[in-house]
Amino acid sequence: MRIGVDLGGTKIEIVALGEADDELVRRRVPSPSHDYDAIVETIGSLVETLERERGTRGSVGVGTPGAPSRRTGLMKNANSTVLIGRPFERDLSERLQRPVRLANDANCFALSEAADGAARGADCVFGVILGTGVGGGIVVGGRPLAGANAIAGEWGHNPLPWPQPGELPGPPCYCGKRGCIEAFLSGPALARDHLASGGGESGGAAIAAAAARGDARARATLERYADRLARSLATVIDILDPDAIVLGGGVSNVAALYDELPARLPAYVFSDDVATRVLPARHGDASGVRGAARLWDPASARAWTAT
Question: What is the CA radius of gyration of the chain?
Answer without folding.
Answer: 19
